[in-house]
Amino acid sequence: MSGVTATRPGVPHRVARVLGAILLGIVIGMTAANVWPVLLLSLGAPAAAAIELVFLAAYIYWVAGGGSPRKWRAFRADCFRARALAPRDWLWGLMAAISFAATIHASIVLLFRFVPYPAEAFHRGYDFSFIPSRSLQWLACVFSAISAAVCEETGFRGYMQRPIERRIGPTAAILISSLFFTLVHLNKSWALIGMVPIVFGAGLLLGSLARASASLVFNMIGHAIMDVGLFAYWWTQIAGKFPQQPISQTGIDRAFVLECAAFVLFLWLTLLSIRKLSAIRTSS
User: Fold this and answer.
1) DSSP code per residue over 174-205
2) How many CB atoms lie within 10 A of CB 77?
3) Which of 5-9, 95-99, 237-241, 274-278 has the lowest mean pLDDT?
4) How does DSSP classify residue 10?
5) Per-residue b/e over 256-276, b at no fewer than 16 CB within 10 Å?
6) Which of 121, 119, 117, 122 is nearest to 244 (CA)?
7) Residue 6 has pLDDT above 50, yes or no
8) Fewer beta carbons within 10 angstroms: which end of the chain, N or C?
9) Which pLDDT does position 129 carry in this prediction?
């Protein structure tokens, strides 16, 4: 038979591409995310924040397709999910971002109504006492959250998940990016067994949001809001201390019922917003 018949890439080729996307996502996300801690410890909060702003601006410019090498610009823009956002995107995207952050914090509250809150483990590695004032501690928390959100979302939901979506489909891509998002956080002192499904669940929601919105903007916003709470409340306690005891000691009290209701409500709002974004993307 004359001519050449086009064939789909074989399994080894696709596996190699998936492994390459996993490695690329980790490098792009985690390497950049670790610039901020070095700056903070070396320079102090005000100077570190100023330099981090410049770094993040340059980082976003490059990962979104700017700069060299020119031949990879389209690939970088696609991985970053760079596109214009319509007003409907902003409406449901912001709803998804805020509801996502609230869902994760509600799930952590529920976790520590079942088991005691291990304050020592959560505080280990997050000592901001070397920062001289409360306002600068808040500055450090906010920049820690923004840096992690921008870099991790670019790495995991962008450069890792997006190429895998193209190779083997969105469901597998979301599962894989969520798995590795969880694995890279297991070296933290707070990564107790009860936190593992919460982190994995956060990855699933963020992966679904990125796919539905075809953008990383709302992921970064939701991730940053979540992390501000994590840094300021759960990890450093500059926003207060978790006062509640497990229901094994208090019984099923009114607060616990309200906490369960809040978790269900915020999760429902997150999923509803993701579904609306998906419908918008499909229709357009």
Assistant:
1) HHHHHHHHHHTTTTSTT--GGGHHHHHHHHHH
2) 15
3) 5-9
4) P
5) beebeebbeebbebbbebbeb
6) 117
7) no
8) N
9) 87
Helix (H) or strand (E) holding 31: none
* pLDDT over 70 percentage in the chain: 97
Q: What is the predicted pLDDT for the residue at 188?
A: 87
Residue whose pair of structure tokens reads 């999760």 in the numeric block: 267
- A 10 A CB-CB count for 6 gives 4
Element housing 5 (H / E): none
Return the residue matching tokens 């709470």. 229
At 3 the pLDDT is: 45
Mean pLDDT along residues 40-54: 96
Mean pLDDT of 150-155: 98
The reported pLDDT for the residue numbered 5 is 45
Burial grade of 278 (CB within 10 A; 0-12, 13-18, 19 or more): middle
Q: CA-to-CA distance for 81 and 215, rounded, in angstroms?
A: 5
Position 9, amino acid: P
Cα(262)–Cα(72) distance, integer angstroms = 44
DSSP string spanning 124-153? TT---TTSSSHHHHHHHHHHHHHHHHHHHI
Structure tokens at 81: 């999910």
The Cα–Cα gap between 227 and 143 comes to: 10
For range 44-50, the mean pLDDT: 96
For residue 102, pLDDT over 50 is answered with yes
Residue 123 near residue 236 (C-beta atoms within 8 A): yes
Length of the chain: 284
- The alpha carbon of residue 15 and the mean position of all alpha carbons in its chain are separated, in whole angstroms, by 25
